[in-house]
Structure formats: structure tokens, C-alpha cells
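Thread title: Can someone regenerate the structure for this chain?

I was given the following input by a collaborator and told the matching C-alpha cells would be attached. They weren't. Posting the sequence so someone can regenerate them.
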Amino acid sequence: METHHPSKILMTADSFGGVWTYALELACALENTQIALATTGEPLSAEQRETAAAISNLTIYESNFKPEWQDVEGNDLKKAGEWLLQLRDEVQPDLVHLNGMIHASLPWGKPVVVVVHSCVLSWWRAVRHEDAPKQWNNY
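Best answer:
Regenerated them for you:
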């Protein structure tokens, strides 16, 4: 059986903590695949830029949209989705790898992998021992 490996992947990540590290480690592991990493959250630090620049198959596309787990009102989610679809058109990936749930239902026209690293609602329940406030219902 023949195996097909994607030559280009559009991947999302926020610039905070574990998902950022996961995305960079995955890019390193997929050394023969071009990775277009679309970031949300805070601007990348000098250290993050330096680390990313050392990964030859990685191109960073930076935004200042809030990640889904910070965007309580959902103000950035639609705009971020539109930006991601524009990146899809520019990058022409074989596969879309989302490190979050909210944009999974966009009309990608490509195979989509969704990785969920955490959930605000279950985190709230586990840490605070109560349901999250109603403002998180959209999440």
C-alpha cells in the first residue's frame, strides 16, 4: 500500500506555553514537510523567533487575534477564521492541522486534523469545582 505524506501543512498554535512547544516539536519531526504556522495571542518573543528561525521547514504567520480560550466574547474568532482561510489560499496546504476546536467547521476544502490540548469548561470545573460563568457558553 502506498503512503502519501503531505508536502505542506497549515498549522495553528497560540504563542503561549505548551501548544507553542508542541507545534515546534511537530514541525521538527516533520522535517520533509513545509509547515506554515499561524499563531494567535501575544507577539512572539525574541527567543520564540530565534527558536522558530532555526527550523528550516517552518514559516511563521503571526496575528494578534486572541486564542479561543481567551476570547470570552468571541470578538476575534470570526476575523481569525477569515484570516486562516486567506492563509489556506496563500499557502495551498495538503492538510490543515488545528490546535483548537473553534475553526474546525470552516470550509477548508482539505483534510483537517483537530488536536484539543485543553478545554476551558472542563478546566474550570476541575480547578474551581463549579461550572464556568455563562459568558463562556459560546465556547
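The radius of gyration is 16 Å.
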